[in-house]
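User: I'll paste a sequence; please echo it back and then give the predicted structure.

Assistant: Echoing your sequence first, then the prediction.
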Amino acid sequence: MKMPLALKQLVRRRIVLVAMIVLTLISVLALGAEAFGRFDPNDTAIMERLRGPGAAHWLGTDELGRDVYARIVHGGRYSLMIAASTALGAVLMGTLLGLVAGFFKRLDGPLMRLVDAMMSFPDILLAIALVAILGPSMFNVVLALVLVYTPRVARVVRASTLVLRELLFVEAARAVGVGTGRILWRHILPNLLSPVLVQLSFIFAYAILAEAGLSFLGVGVPPDIPTWGTMVAGSQSYAHQAFWVVLFPGLAIIFTALSLQLVGDGVRDLLDPKLKKSMR
């Protein structure tokens, strides 16, 4: 079976290929956590607390004697789930908002003023405020992050829609009596796929970092859920005597976010006609 041309061009860049391999490995470990985890992530063993990496516990144990490796692979499932839900939610809401604002001139002003107001706040501060209002839970963290990143997508989609609505094929569709809904669905949305995919990959990475930041500040996911962020937050006071309790969850966050950013850059270069030539 031949590799699709787009994927072949994407993996031709070694750094993107390495990033895709890292993401695949992390995803497989997270999805198959029960198979790859040697211990239950919540099993405590006080007599083995703060044990260093070794044959029994590959990445050591934390302050309660829980296996760090098991918590990382299980926590990856929650962290990736939160990030993926945030990315999908922000893309869906942002695409709808940007599409309406860009196509309907009467709604452009009010909607964009709302978007500008939301983007005037730093992402992490707005997320903290929203989670503080909604309460700490996984659903509320996702909802808060979706509201934070929706304006980013909306502005990108609006800018593309403003250009697309003036093109000849859209004018021709209007001239022959094609309805507004059909124009949006058949002519505008397919041409928004490229910028939306790029935004999806970037927001995925941002959401992983944001969830970790919220958990570190104590306003994110409840501590009983072993995300990478809650692992770092819960063990930070023991880092001076057992560096591995913070190092390995931190590396999981860094490698995942960095790999997503690199893949996002590769997708952007592939889909941008001006940058695509440099990949050949």
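The two ends are 22 Å apart (CA to CA). The mean pLDDT is 86.
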